[in-house]
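For reproducibility, we list the full input for the zinc ion complex.
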Amino acid sequence: MTAGSTRLILGNAVVVTVDEARTVHQPGFVAVEEGRLVAIGAGEPPAALRAGAEVIDVGGDILMPGMVNTHCHMAMSVFRGLGDDVADRLERYIFPLEKRFVGPEMVYLGSLHAALELLEGGVTTVADMYYFETEVARAADVAGLRGLMGQTVVDFAAPDAATPEEGLRRFQDLADRLAGHPRLRASIAPHAPYTTGRDLLDEIARRAEKDGVWVQIHLAEVEREIAWCRERYGMTPVRFMAETGLLNPRMIAAHAILVDDADLDLLREGGAAVSHNAGSNAKAGKGIAPVLGMLARGIRVGLGSDGAMSGNTLDLFAQLPQVAKLQKLAARDRTVMPATEVVALATIDGARALGLEREIGSLETGKKADLIRISRRAARMSPLHDVHSTIVYAALASDVRDVMIDGAWVLRDGIPTRFDRAAVIAEVEALAARMRASLGA
Ligand SMILES: [Zn+2]
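The corresponding predicted structure, in tokenized form, follows.
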């Protein structure tokens, strides 16, 4: 069933609310009506709530808030596995590949493929940045995802814009198309300080300030970015962003690995959010972001997968154990970054990073019904001594059974409800074959 006047109750569940007290109802129930959560509680749903409602017994499965992926390049799913383990691959690999293959059709197909993977992995909200972002938004809309859609802008010829001005026009087109959309919001995504430059960042800052636009950027991610900022401006990338006026609560800084204490203080003072991409950062050997220092300062932090060419998978289950273990390793302390904290980072904290914490991110009465059902069928899902620990260290994306966004099922029994799963995969395989042929691989 979908949203409507009928009340739906999911009962006999382990309910992971991620509310302020991190309450778990075991067993418990969740009631949904007209796209919103109308009741959450322990034990059996009361008779008055059950009257006239459709009741589903989830058989002890886990219900939790849909996950929030705060940094993704959905369309790049078609490049998954290309250029792994290659040095300097952004300039030598990714940019040339993008020049050659990126067009509106490829972006739409890759993004729909990514949307499938996100839903299969329990992600209900995604922050994306790429070229032809109107096509990414079209795919996210078809799939039923919630998201912050970022049109990438760079200071050189891009796959979708000969000039930065054209990139900014594409953002405006995206913003016009998404105006009033119930789930999708437009954002400007300057690629990074060293690929955008001061003049363009100043122009973006002006527009963002005028219209209250959210900005996504790769920040303090790579050594040559640090060198570029130091040589040109004699400062760190974070301080450079502060100078442009972009370091404010509507900024999402992806990565923030190479940051010192002064940078962290600046991030806190500016109120910018950080998207932590543990797996992608580790795979590239870039370093372990000082997430504990960010959280200690009260900086908003969410989790991201990065694109499939960087992190290979787009779900957050693959990130959760890495988020915990890398921080524990860095601190040489098993008590830091406990499982409850990691689950919060993937849900309510991600929502906070995107400014959506009043609407989504936890299972609390009045919030939008964005939730996922995690099957406990696999042997590694029992026993359930500590459900947060099970989610972080044992669960896999493939355990996700059902996904609801805005009170509507967008994935049921692992199958998307709004588009043809098999057709998307077949088309991506066909495109990949043409790509390999063209690359001579
Ligand atoms: Zn990225």
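Residues 71, 73, 218, 254, 306-307 surround zinc ion (CB under 6 Å). The chain has two domains: 8-65+370-416, 67-353. Both points were considered when choosing residues for closer inspection.
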